[in-house]
Design brief:
20% of the residues lie in helices and 44% in strands. It is built from 3 helices and 8 strands. Strand 1 and strand 2 (20-30) form a beta hairpin. The longest helix is centred in the first third of the chain and has 12 residues, at 34-45.
């Protein structure tokens, strides 16, 4: 099972007109702990950001499933209710789950979710779809070398 953490990174971004602006961008990282999430986000974004940056916040993201789409440039949070029937009372029971779909449009996000849910035997209802501010998602990969400790990364950043 994946443990997803939303990491916020603050840095000076050079705008198209040449001006510099301080921005805070959220990223999603698959890690085992808050410490590993910090180490992984520093390692992942270092090649893309010139100058200093700070990890200003890390929080656990409760996501049941992620659906990737190579053509998508945005991430959509989708709330899904799984519908089950209680055999004793005969009443419908709804269990909520949060999912993330990568897509270019809201309509495409729904299509990506439905395509990913094709093999699911359970009935479900899409309750809501909302675009997130996430810039990128970094899933765990066995090929990725073990991340350095936060202390090692901070020491390297200061050099």
């Amino acid at each position: 099972m994946h443990n997803w953490f939303e990491c916020k990174v603050t840095y000076e971004k050079v705008l198209e007109n040449g001006m510099q602006k301080k921005v805070t961008e959220p990223y999603l990282v698959d890690a085992l702990s808050f410490t590993e999430a910090e180490a992984r986000i520093i390692e992942e974004i270092r090649p893309f950001i010139s100058g200093e940056f700070t990890v200003t916040g890390i929080k656990r993201a409760r996501l049941s499933e992620l659906f990737f789409n190579e053509n998508g440039d945005r991430f959509y949070r989708i709330k899904v209710y799984f519908v089950t029937l209680d055999e004793k009372s005969g009443a419908e029971k709804k269990t909520a789950a949060q999912m993330l779909a990568q897509a270019s449009t809201l309509k495409e996000a729904i299509a990506v979710l439905e395509d990913g849910m094709k093999g699911t035997m359970a009935d479900y209802i899409i309750a809501s779809v909302a675009e997130t501010m996430l810039i990128d998602v970094y899933p765990y990969s066995a090929e990725t070398k073990a991340p350095k400790s936060p202390e090692e990364l901070i020491a390297e950043q200061r050099q």
